[in-house]
Fold this protein.
Amino acid sequence: MLLQKHQYKVLEDYLLKTFADFEKESLFNRNNHDTKLQMLTYIVNSLYKNNKLKESLEYAQLLNKSMKEFGGLLFDKYLFYYYNSLVINYSQLDKNKALEIIDELSANEKIKNNSFYQQFIWINRFLLLFDLKDYHKAARSLTKLYLLKDYKNYDETIRYKIAVADLITRYELSDFETLAYKIKQTAKDFKHLSNRKDFVDEKEIIGALKLLSVASEKMNVKSVIKKLIEFKNRNKKIKNADESGIIHYNNWVDEKINQHK
């Protein structure tokens, strides 16, 4: 219930107190070991959501230590969650280190054959490379993602957001020919989603990309920037709006506005 309401601070306090109480009373044992690892995973994630990255990493290491208890009984089950905790935190603290962790994760034999884990690897590799402005490698990461055998079976809302992230990357590469083609393809593939209220961000970003890619005259650029400022102001009023896309739209919009001031 706290997760659904995005009450991460309350969730953090509740989990830390509950975990401490269980530890104090020596309530954790082999029979409820799964519960202990679940609690640690939630603690890591709630601390991350509350921007307590150092503390989140400390609990990630406690998670790793606890995974080895009882002869590594549930080690494999929580291996991905441990790596995820490292990636999300280092994505904020040290993007190059986060890339190294993803490389380590992708080399793990237990991860290679799981389509969901592969999706995580390529999306996060893309995001890190995009943030580092290595757009060529970022685009290649998306290509790898598209080639996964189960990609077409992924949730279409995720695929739509990935498609928009791809369009933004093509714009950053000044690959306007491919951008124009992909805009048409995205409009065709996700026509039934584009007019839904919960995808207004994607619709406006695509509209801005269309105009930016052909806005050679100063007046045209000004009209695009005006639309981007309207986008930014609208999202300021919506809680968690910037969490809706694969790329943080607001950060990208701010960058475009500053570039054309």
User: Anything to note?
Assistant: The first helix runs from residue 8 to 24. DSSP finds 15 helices and no strands in the chain.
